[in-house]
Automatic annotation (TrEMBL):
InterPro entries attached to this UniProt entry: Bact_solute-bd_prot1 (IPR050490), SBP (IPR006059)
Protein name per UniProt: ABC transporter substrate-binding protein
Keywords, in A-Z order: Signal
Endpoints of the signal sequence: 1-19
Compositional bias ranges of the Low complexity kind: 32-56
Region of interest (Disordered), ranges: 32-57
Keyword DNA-binding: no
Amino acid sequence: MRKFSNVLACLLVTGSLLSACGGNNNGNKPAANGGEATPAPAATNAAEETAAPTEAPVDDITQRKVTIKIHYPTPDLTEVRAQEDDKIKRFQEVYPNVEIVKDDWQYNVSEIGVKMAANEAPTFFNTYATEAKFLVEKGWVADVTDLWNNYEFKDQINPVLQNQFIIDGKVYGVTQKGYVTTTMINKKMLDEKGVAVPPMDWTWDDMLNTAKGVADTKKGISGIAPMGKGNEAGWNWTNFLFEAGGEIQKIEGGKVVATFNSDAGVKALDFYKKLRWEAKAVPQDWALGWGDAVGAFQQGRTAMVMAGSDGVIEQALNQGGLKPEDVLTYPMPAAEKGGKHTGVLGGDYLVINPNASKDEQEMAFRYITFDYFSDKGLEALDAIISQRKTDGKYYIPPLLDYYAADSDFGKKTKAVYDKYDIVYQYSPEIMALLDGKPEAQYNTQDYYATMSNVIQELFSKDGTDSKAQLDAAAKTVQEKFFDTIKVE
């Protein structure tokens, strides 16, 4: 879910330095204009900007003149442009045969077809986790399987993220960063009420019982704060739709068909009713947007909140005064024991133009991955964490980065983290339980907005009919939005 771009600093870094932006991590809340996190420029990880040029492999392509049009930051991002310019300089020191043309067009599903038809799309461009199948079916992304297979670090890339752009065994893009919605728990609040910490492999019942045990309506304390205002409300609820085995939409006969009014949808909506009316665990003032819900968690007014992890933890520790041991990061709960811990997955990817020549595609791939897995970047990361310690602040790494946590590079990064007592540590159990599912490909925000109205009615009025609510919402989404789409 695309996060509102209210803190420019957070767009200045990607990868392992994302958390250094002060907590507003990209891609852990919704925005009004699309499906996921606004992609940061290609590989502009501040930690890796200091990477010394490496020697280019000796092959024919380095002896031929090649021009690539790169994905470039928009004019308002002056510092990011400076970082990208530095990367261009370092890349051309290694590949002096490559001419680089800057293109600040940002991916838009309504514009990509025109760009391709006019042959105006960059050699590589940014896109989101939702777009993989769409772009592949349209033939608007290059099959880079051969380039991927020859990439020395392919086995160290984060599979949870990268797999979104591997379709039928073929590779069509390279991950930059991403998130899977998680649940943050204030352990201190549980301890104060004598409520047991739930198992990491938890269920809806565990979430319900935990929330019910902590809630204290007389004191204005809620057990959980599902977002109930804006598109965030629909976004939060969609995690439960996925956990129940439901889907937002399907493609049938060249049309997009709403499917969230299924038995799974009813089950997920009924669970929300239990949280609100049976457990009385939802805030009385339930009209909370992303900032409101995260603020309530930071201030100790709710024991649980659902979002991308690092932004929430950043605020809780560095603004709310909580200690790392008080803030637990959990996967989303499974609907039932043994079920999947599915959370909405968002991510930023770079894909290559299929109209580019083979040489252009290869150089684009080398540019995309140029700053990945840099030891110099680790040195810079160390310096940033050291400065945080000096400033008396905690450092919260992202839960998901472009590299796999158990890769050699992931282990090197963890070794840097382990040097400091101010780095937030995620439970080692969580990675094995995370299950990410991309948002809907078509009209995601319109669907979220419609479901937000459903959530608000459910929270404000006891005894609503879940099936009737969902049928009405599906009819609205179908007639106003999905029926206008023609899928070829």
